[in-house]
Write a structure and sequence with these properties.
The chain folds into six domains: 134 residues, no CATH class; 102 residues, no CATH class; 133 residues, no CATH class; 123 residues, no CATH class; 128 residues, no CATH class; 126 residues, no CATH class. It is mainly β. Helix content is 13%, strand content 42%.
Length: 907
């Protein structure tokens, strides 16, 4: 029983471990996928209805849209513009980007990874909206089947109707924003085609007279009738308390001020609220619920509240009351000042700067320009501002502009163009300085770099029929000269957005314009890496040189490559790869960013965006060097045809470009000839990019063919290489590597090769017929010493010579002009050879000895043939040879003596 419980416990423990492991695996995978979604592209695939499809060039009526794009793009022949969206819902600020398509989309299905969104009612829609949270995509709002649907970025349905964060509150609904939805049939969502009246950089321009256009307002504002002022002798309601703004205006910030109203003592406390506003708090010494009467400029007004426990009034400049906030039990009532002590009930549970700005603008008849609005219209006080993008021949290349035009409601209820002084210029929550607030402005046009529509670099104001251009960011200054606008825009674009022009040909630091300013400013640093990734190449790394935010920058263009298109993303560096003999333009350059790397290949004189071939930088460079300048990699370890990269033609490649032919003359050497044949049988000149099997540094020269020489049985190491072309270059192996020699020495090829064979392979050519030392250390690289040891042989009429030479791995026999390879692979450190001559002074026996005393014996078989012989057979061979020699001697010569081999080679 005990064993049963132990087994059960073990099984439960194992199950728990597996459960925990699977859980962590799932969480890790989920986090990894989430991370990839966050930083990579998020593709939504729109399947369009076929019948009414207007697009051309699509694949099976499918559009693959990256929903993270924040700049204009084109997909499947349909152009899409991207517009920002900003809306506040209480404490929450909702931001995002609308994707608006020129041709409406008739969507029948959307796929996001494995998720699928089915559309029942197919109607044309203008686009969709992506909302952000802390800079990351949060959810997507899409109109279909007669309502707004909200999806996660992975395509999971969150809610229908109100926003996902609304929790059922219908006031937080997409209908409150002008988001893309259903459009009429045959509607083209094109942007306005009129252009902004902007001066060219070389001229000043006066505006044309504006036509007054009446626009009938589509919605009537719900008005709350202001409370009626109280007559002087009218009795107040029970619990009344006068909120005396006239007395409060005499107090000071930080110094509490007290006054009495009947039996009540009230303390006024003034505090600053967001710099330009103040909050006046009215506190009773003896707390009670009150009925507030607001007194301003001598008049009292009953706003209709009762049971108020806390009283506060928000005030603008020159003590102008803006908003009264009264807290009753469980709720707050707010009243906006509409002038002359008239107050209107408004919904403002939380008081923020935007609320006060709107009331202040209404009272002062001034306006606020919010340049985060880039389409549609927005209301400020008594005005309505319409926003249009200026489309046409902009004088400032790479910049976009959005025109904000002021309108006001006339007596007939329509909208007419107007002008007003400006309370603020801002982008969302960021206020701008330096612009004259006293100017009466008709239009304000904000200019942005088209790669970042969040930072206006120039603001153009139409004031009294004159254009005023303010340049900068956050802090602006007036630029009166139109001719300087282009240069100042570009400089601020660099300072604000870190935007530079890359000069790929530069190999030293240069300015943000690509080095054309001539000022010596260094905004882009260039680091040179020689022989990277291999010999013959040079890599130049372009990085942002400024100390501030040095890591990442943006690219506005490439000098001299104006046709090139690319995405405006943050870049950490640009790597340009050059062939050293051609430093005018790189063969390849790469833009590296946060989570992306894009490569551009030089093809037919232009750069083309492509992936690396086989994901290999080096192979891609070899490919481009061959197809652009005919550079090859030669491999002297190959004896059959191969690819221009030096690799085998198969299986990775389909063609062999380098043809190898083999010639084995003279007999002791092997010669291979490498030629380039782009077409079969047609030899083409080429340049050498790299050599495999030979450590040679070859300067650029045109080559027609290359001969490589080898010693037989040593085909893995060439001993000489001859590059043929307009001028031949011969390289011969030495103890210190390959050295260039005068090609005239090829006339004595045999001697040159034998010397190279010794230097490269430690191969010794033994001259068996020599009875004295031979070879010169200086001329031949070695010396062979020969000693006569005949007196130690003890064989009559035979002679013995010992050849001592440097340690060698291989030998060859030379008998005068005859050559023989004994094939001594089993011995590796030879240093002696014993040669025995017969009575006719002909070598008949050779013994090769290594450092350890091991020996191989060879006997002469005639006709320059040698064969191995065993030590035991050597005596018989010598006796037989001696007898044959004796028979050839004179008839009366003495008989041969005895042969004794008792101590063979005591060396």
């Amino acid at each position: 029983m005990k064993k049963f419980w132990l087994a059960l416990l073990f099984i439960l423990l194992l199950a728990a471990i597996l459960t925990v492991g699977l859980t962590f695996t799932f969480l890790y995978k989920h986090r990894k996928e989430a991370k990839e979604v966050k930083h990579g592209e998020i593709i939504w695939t729109f399947h369009l209805e076929h019948e009414d499809l207007k697009l051309k060039g699509t694949l099976e009526d499918i559009l693959n849209v990256d929903i993270l794009k924040t700049i204009e793009y084109e997909v499947g022949g349909n152009k899409a513009s991207v517009r920002s969206v900003v809306r506040e819902f209480g404490d929450l600020t909702l931001t995002g980007w609308m994707h608006l398509f020129k041709q409406p989309l008739r969507v029948k299905k959307i796929t996001v990874g494995k998720a699928q969104i089915e559309v029942v009612k197919v109607v044309p829609i203008a686009g969709f909206t992506v909302f952000n949270k802390e800079g990351n995509p949060d959810f997507v709002t899409l109109w279909h089947d007669d309502s707004f649907h909200h999806y996660s970025v992975e395509g999971e349905l969150l809610t229908v109707g109100a926003f996902p964060f609304a929790k059922g509150d219908e006031s937080k609904h997409p209908d409150r924003l002008e988001l893309p939805k259903e459009v009429k049939e045959d509607t083209e969502m094109a942007l306005p085609e009129h252009r902004e009246e902007v001066p060219m950089p070389h001229e000043e321009v006066r505006p044309k007279e504006e036509k007054v256009e009446v626009i009938v307002e589509s919605k009537k504002e719900e008005l709350v009738v202001p409370a009626v002022p109280v007559p002087e002798k009218k009795v107040r309601r029970v619990g009344a308390l006068v909120v005396d703004l006239d007395l409060a205006s005499k107090s000071e910030v930080g110094a509490p001020f007290k006054y009495k109203d009947g039996d009540d003592e009230i303390t006024i406390t003034r505090t600053t609220f967001n710099v330009i506003y103040e909050k006046w708090t009215f506190t009773l010494t003896k707390q009670r619920a009150v009925v507030p009467y607001i007194k301003y400029e001598g008049e009292e007004v009953d706003v209709g509240c009762s049971g108020v426990l806390e009283l506060a009034v928000f005030v603008g400049r020159v003590n102008l009351p803006l908003l009264a906030s009264f807290r009753e039990a469980g709720r707050i009532k707010s009243f906006a000042h509409r002038g002359k002590n008239a107050w209107q009930h408004v919904h403002a549970p939380v008081v923020d700067v935007d609320t006060l700005d709107d009331i202040y603008c209404f009272l002062k008849q001034i306006v606020i320009f919010d340049f985060s609005k880039q389409s549609g219209q927005y209301k400020v006080g008594a005005f309505e501002v319409h926003v249009t993008e200026t489309v046409g021949a902009e004088p400032f290349e790479k910049f976009k502009s959005f025109k904000h035009t002021i309108f006001k409601t006339n007596d007939e209820g329509g909208l007419v163009a107007a002008s007003a002084k400006v309370h603020k210029y801002k982008f969302f929550k960021v206020n701008f300085n330096g612009l004259n607030a006293d100017d009466s402005v008709t239009t304000a046009t904000a200019f942005f770099w088209d790669g970042d529509l969040t930072k206006p670099l120039m603001i153009r104001l139409l004031v009294n029929n004159t254009y005023l251009n303010y340049v900068g960011h956050k802090d602006y200054e007036l630029e009166p000269k139109a001719a300087l606008l282009q240069a100042r825009l570009e400089r601020f674009n660099y300072l604000v957005n870190r935007v530079v022009t890359i000069n790929l040909a530069k190999q030293m630091p240069y300015d943000f314009k690509g080095g054309v300013l001539g000022t010596g400013e260094e905004h882009v640093a260039v680091r040179i890496e020689e022989n990277s990734p291999m010999e013959h190449f040079r890599k130049c790394v372009h990085t942002h040189a400024a100390a501030r935010n040095a890591e990442f920058f943006k690219i506005i263009g490439f000098l001299g490559e104006e046709y090139l298109t690319f995405e405006n993303r943050d870049v950490s560096q640009v790597e340009a790869y050059f062939l050293k003999g051609h430093l005018e333009r790189p063969l390849l350059f790469s833009m590296k960013g946060h989570f992306h790397t894009h490569h551009y290949h030089l093809e037919s004189g232009k750069f083309v965006k492509k992936d690396l071939i086989f994901d290999d930088v080096l192979y891609t460079l070899k490919h481009l060097a061959y197809h652009t300048f005919t550079y090859l990699t030669l491999d002297f370890n190959r004896f059959s045809s191969y690819h221009f990269s030096g690799e085998s033609a198969f299986p990775r490649h389909r063609h062999a470009h380098v043809i190898v032919r083999r010639n084995e003359e003279p007999s002791e050497f092997v010669r291979t000839t490498h030629t380039l044949e782009k077409r079969h049988g047609e030899i083409t000149n080429f340049f050498v990019l790299a050599l495999k099997g030979a450590d040679i540094v070859l300067k650029d020269q045109v080559v027609s063919s290359v001969d490589a020489y080898y010693v037989k049985r040593h085909l893995d190491d060439p001993i000489a290489i001859n590059f043929k072309g307009a001028a031949n270059r011969l390289y011969v192996a030495t103890k210190n590597g390959f050295e260039q020699k005068d090609s005239i020495i090829l006339s004595n090829l045999e001697k040159v090769m034998r010397r190279a064979a010794h230097d490269k392979l430690k191969l010794v050519y033994l001259q068996l017929h020599r009875t004295s030392s031979y070879y010169d250390e200086h001329l031949d690289g070695l010396s062979v010493k020969v000693e006569d040891k005949t007196d130690e042989l003890d064989i009559d009429e035979f002679k013995m010579y010992v050849h001592a030479f440097p340690e060698s791995s291989d030998v060859r026999f030379l008998l005068k002009e005859a050559y023989f390879d004994p094939k001594v692979d089993t011995l590796v450190d030879l240093n002696k050879a014993v040669v025995i001559f017969d009575r006719n002074e002909v070598p008949v026996l050779v013994s090769l000895i290594d450092l350890e005393g091991n020996a191989l014996h060879f006997k002469h078989d005639g006709d320059n043939k040698w064969s191995k012989v065993r030590p035991l057979d050597m005596r018989q061979f010598l006796i037989k040879g001696n007898q044959e020699s004796a028979e050839k001697s004179a008839l009366f010569q003495p008989q041969p003596g005895d042969i004794h081999l008792t101590g063979l080679y005591p060396y």
